[in-house]
Write a structure and sequence with these properties.
The complex is a heterodimer of chains A (111) and B (115). Helices cover 0% and strands 50% of the residues of chain A. By secondary structure, chain A is mainly beta. Chain A has strands spanning 3-6, 11-14, 19-21, 23-26, 33-38, 44-50, 56-59, 62-65, 75-77, 86-93, 99-101, 105-110. The N and C termini of chain B lie far apart (33 Å). With 115 residues, chain B is mostly beta strands. Helices cover 0% and strands 50% of the residues of chain B. At the A-B interface, strand 6 of A face strand 5, strand 9 and strand 10 of B.
Amino acid sequence: GDSVTQMEGPVTLSEEAFLTINCTYTATGYPSLFWYVQYPGEGLQLLLKATKADDKGSNKGFEATYRKETTSFHLEKGSVQVSDSAVYFCALPNTGNQFYFGTGTSLTVIP
Amino acid sequence: DAGITQSPRYKITETGRQVTLMCHQTWSHSYMFWYRQDLGHGLRLIYYSAAADITDKGEVPDGYVVSRSKTENFPLTLESATRSQTSVYFCASSQRQGQGYNEQFFGPGTRLTVL
């Protein structure tokens, strides 16, 4: 069945370091792909999405490119800040407006 | 205030008690969802609803009951709480869209502890 697999965390980086969080998916067809972010004490919120192959989603300095040849949607940011400390979830839509969520990757950025 | 709210934000209860978690959204979204979040499991769908009076089971429905008599409310009831139901519960909503998949909007969560 359809699923997403995220890299295990936690990830700890120094401020201004480069971030990559890996996400691969298994799906029938070519669905849209999403990244959600959960800041401490809050619910999830949409970070970015891509609706078709080779699309690049971007928001708040984060980017992810939908690569069908590698079935991947890795999240990247060139220079992380302390305020980026959060849990990041890769997500794949399912029928009925549902989503398959990855297990989440916790990021801590230290000054 | 517009948005999606959950109450209570924190709840401590005892094994065997009935607990109801409330969820309210002001957007008139068609779809609503209940998730639980546990370390190592990410988010798991408990129940969802496509419209008022239409509900369906998700991945982990056992021990939970939902209802949706009004579009804006989607309460989740634990009929007889167990320690394994200690978790953080999130409600979410999204709007129906023809062929696409719509963003889900999440509430702030309810942290439930069952002693």
